[in-house]
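quick one, 604 residues, struct below
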Amino acid sequence: MNKKYYTLASTAIVAAVALTGCVETKSDVKENDKEVDETAGAKPVIEVLGMAANEQDINIVRDQLVKNGFDVKLNIQPDYGSFKAQEDGGNYDISLSGWTTVTGNPDYAVRGLFKTGGDYSRISDATVDKLIDEASTLTGDEAKEKYKELEQALVFDNAYIAPLYISQKFQGIYAKEVNPDTVRLPKSRAQAWESISFNDAAKNSSETLVLQQASSSLTSLDPVKGNDGSINTLNTNMNVRLVNLTDTDEVVSDGSLSYNHAMSENKDEYYFVLRDDINFAKVENKKAVDTGDLVSAEDVVFSLNRAKDQKAVPDHRTYSIHENIETVEIVSDITSLEAVKTADGGTVLDALSKDLPSAVAEVVTSEADVDNAAGKYQVVKITTPAAFPQVLNYLAHQSGGIVSEAAVTAVNTFDVAKYDPNKDVAYGDQATITEGATYANHLAASGPYILVQKNDYEATFVKNPAYQVGTENEPKINNISVRFIQDNDSALSALRNGEIHVLQTVPETKVDVVEGDTNLKLKTFDSNAVSYLIFNPKGREVSESVDLRKAVLYSINQDEFISYYQGKKKPAVSTVSPLIDTGLKVEADSAKVKEFLNAYNASK
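---
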C-alpha cells in the first residue's frame, strides 16, 4: 500500500512550509501550543488524508490544528487512486476534498455530496436530506433562505465539513498562434472547443489545435458512466445536449440540439423543439464520416431514459443527477403545446416558435418525417414528479449527452446484471479507442468532435462533418489533440514553448509567469470550485463527537489560505458558496476551539 505518514506532536513538529502569508513558523506553532494546553485532557489525534498534489494545503491545515491543541498525523497519497483506496478504507479523520459544480446549480452542489445515498455522500442526516429536497424546488430569495438553513445544519450545527476556500479560474493561451477572443472560459461548463480558431483562420483546416489534460486513463466515453476530470471535457465535446450553459451559468438553447426550450408555469413540464442539422459521426479508417443518421427525438428518449436508470448500464455513475426526471416522451399533438401555459402567460408553442427556420406547422414523432424547412419538427417533453426547475441545469451536464440508440444497442448486447469487464465490451470502453490490438472504435458522436484514437501520450479528435454545418456553431478547427501532461509545471512549460495552445488551469502561483510572457494571454474568471475538509462518518472519534468536529472547524483560518495564494482564493461556507451568498461566514475562533475541546474531553 502506498502510504506516507507523518506523525506530529507538539514536541516534534515537521517544519512548516514557508508561506507568503501569515502562517505560523515552527517556533510560532510551539508557542501557541502552550496557550491551548489549558484544555482538559490529552490532545486528540487527528489523521488528515490528502494527495501529494495538495500538500501545501495539507500543511496549512496541519499547522492550524497543531496551533489549536491537536496532535496531527498526515496520510499523504501520491495519486487519486491510492488516495481513494485510503478513503474507502476509512483511514482518516478528515479528508481534503474538493468539488466543482459543473452544472451551475446549487442542487448539484449538495445532492450527490451530502444527501443520504448520494453518489459521493458519506453523510446520512434526515434534516440535511429534507433541506436539500426543499431547496431544489425553489428559486430566488426563497431558495437563498433554504440553502442558508442547509448550510447552518451542514456546517455550523453538525460540522460535517470544514470549508477552506473558493478557487478562481486562470487560463493560459498561446496567443502567438491562437486567437484568445475565440477561447471561452466558462464558470461551470467544460471547455467548448467548437469556437476556437487560430489567428490565421486558414490554418483551421490544416493545423492541429493542441490542448492538455492531466489524466490519460479515461473512465468511459459513454457519458452516463463517468463524472470526473478524465472525461468531462471530452464527452462534453463529443455529445450534444438539449441545452447548454452560458459562461455565466445561464441555461440556453444556443449551440445545443434544441432551437428553443420552454417550462410550464407549474415548473414540472419541460419542452424542447429539436433542430435537424446534426447527424451522428463515426470513425472509418481513422477519419470522421457522416453516418446520415439524424440526432433525433428517438435518440433523446433513449439517452435520457438510460441516464436516469441505475440499471441501464454496469457501473452507472451519474443516475442520481437525473433522478428527478419522471418521463421522457415525443410530443405527437401540436394542440397540446397550445394548451400548456408558461410563467409569462404565453403558451409553450409560442415559446418554442421563436426564430425557427420556419413556423411550426406540424409536430412529428418519426425521425423520417422531420423537415424543419417545411415546418415539421420533433418536440420532446420531460416531466418531473414535482416542481424542479434545476432539471435544466442537469440536462446541460455531460451525462445528459445524446447518444445513438443504434450504436449503443449494437455494442451493449450483454446482460447488465451479469456484466463481466474481463470479457464483455461496453459502449465507450477506452480499450476500444486505444491504439493496438484492442482498437475497434465504435463511437457515434452527436457533438462537434469525435475521438479517433488515443495512446498514453495523447487523444486525437476530428471535426464532426455533419454538425450544424454553415451555422455559427460549426466547429472552426478540423483536428484537435489532447495531450496528457500530469505535472502542472511541465504543462506550463509546454504552453510557453507553443507545444500546447491552451492551458485550461494555470496554478495561482504561476499566474505571474503567464502574465510576463509576451507570447501568452491570461484569462481569469470566477469558479464554482470549493476545497473543504470532510469528516469520517464512522469508526473514528470525530464520527461520534460533534464537539470534536466543531473544534476542528473553528481551528481553520481561511484568511491564511487566501494569504498564501496571494489573494487568489475566496472565503467559503459550503459547496453552495460560489452560487448563492447566504450571508453566513465561517471564522476561526480559538476560544470556541477550547470550548468544544473541553466539552469533548468532558464527555469521554
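Residues 1-37 have pLDDT under 50 and may be disordered.
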